[in-house]
Amino acid sequence: MDRSFSTSVPAVAAAVAAAFILSACDRNDATRSSTAPSSTTSSMATTTPPSTSTMGSTASSTTDKVATAVDDTAITAKVKSALMAEPGLKSLKIDVDTKNATVTLSGSVDSDASRAKAKQVAQSVSGVSSVVDQLTVKSS
Predict the structure, then answer these.
(1) Where are the domains of the chain?
(2) Fewest CB atoms within 10 A around its CB: which of 88, 91, 109, 132?
(3) Is the model's pTM score more than 0.90?
(4) What is the pLDDT of residues 41-89, one digit of tens each?
């Protein structure tokens, strides 16, 4: 057997394979879809990727939810600070929860006056849209 022929066949096969692989790397998606069989092309035409506006509105919606959560957390902290700064209320156990700028006060207070004062203090905090009073007055 001729020795030069036996070593050149694998070398030529490797070169052809490499050229084929490298030529496929240069193709863009448009070239691939235009050379695809017609059944694949028609199914690809019916599937559309999400539009940029849809992706943008989803991102905007997520951003709004995060911003609302951050705002609610800040409002809760401000209301708790305001309640702690109030001399007659700072020793009371008043829980504060905020959702969509609506503050809910819960826990127990020692009098109707303390209950009204806690609600008034919470309502006066910047960013609070409304106050839900779930406070109970301890019986003496």
Answers:
(1) 1-49, 58-140
(2) 91
(3) no
(4) 444 455 555 555 555 566 667 777 666 677 889 999 999 999 999 988 8
Among residues 87, 70, 86, which one has the least CA distance to residue 124?
86
Query: Of 13-22, 25-34, 83-92, 101-110, which has the strongest mean pLDDT?
Result: 101-110
- CATH fold for domain 58-140: Histidine-containing Protein; Chain: A; (3.30.1340)
DSSP secondary structure string, 60-108? HHHHHHHHHHHHHHHHHHHHHHHHHHSTTTTTS-EEEEEETTEEEEEEE
